[in-house]
């Protein structure tokens, strides 16, 4: 029952973080989801109600199944590699990340107040130049 609750909490936290906008939170959500899957696979092996997987006794009723433990070990290595790759993408692609709110970034860069931004400031935050307004000749 305890392992089921741990898996549920990890999945809930992981799904919440994956649905966020920032890349670092998505990576943390992926880590929580991978831990949840590892605990689920590990609990399927019956390690809590049996003995060691490769123990002294050859009795199959008391030894735990070593296959889920091998799967978890492999999944840990794969999840670590994917996490490092995702963190590298998050650091390298930080400037290209369009998930952050650009108006907040423009306020922080320019030290502006909480008032509404003008068009030129928003355009500069998005890397665009504002279109020139046509002049009227009177």
TrEMBL record:
Entry annotated with the keyword Secreted: no
Pfam families: Oxidored_q2 (PF00420)
Keyword tags: Cell membrane, Membrane, Transmembrane, Transmembrane helix
Localisation: Cell membrane
Classification via InterPro entries: CPA3_antiporter_subunitC (IPR050601), NUOK/Mnh_C1-like (IPR039428)
Membrane topology: Multi-pass membrane protein
Residue ranges crossing the lipid bilayer per the database entry: 26-47, 67-92
Membrane keyword on record: yes
Database matches in PANTHER family: ANTIPORTER SUBUNIT MNHC2-RELATED (PTHR34583)
Family: Belongs to the CPA3 antiporters (TC 2.A.63) subunit C family.
Protein name: Multicomponent Na+:H+ antiporter subunit C
Organism listed in the record: Isoptericola halotolerans
């Amino acid at each position: 029952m305890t392992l089921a609750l741990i898996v549920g909490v990890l999945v809930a936290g992981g799904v919440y973080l994956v649905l966020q906008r920032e890349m670092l939170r998505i990576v943390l959500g992926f880590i929580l989801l991978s831990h949840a899957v590892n605990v689920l696979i590990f609990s399927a092996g019956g390690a809590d109600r049996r003995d060691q997987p490769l123990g002294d006794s050859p009795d199959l009723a008391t030894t735990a199944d070593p296959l889920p433990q091998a799967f978890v070990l492999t999944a840990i290595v794969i999840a670590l590699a994917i996490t490092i790759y995702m963190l590298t993408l998050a650091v390298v692609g930080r400037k290209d990340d369009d998930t952050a709110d650009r108006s907040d970034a423009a306020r922080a860069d320019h030290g502006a107040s909480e008032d509404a931004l003008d068009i030129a400031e928003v355009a500069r935050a998005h890397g665009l130049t504002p279109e020139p307004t046509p002049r009227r000749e009177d």
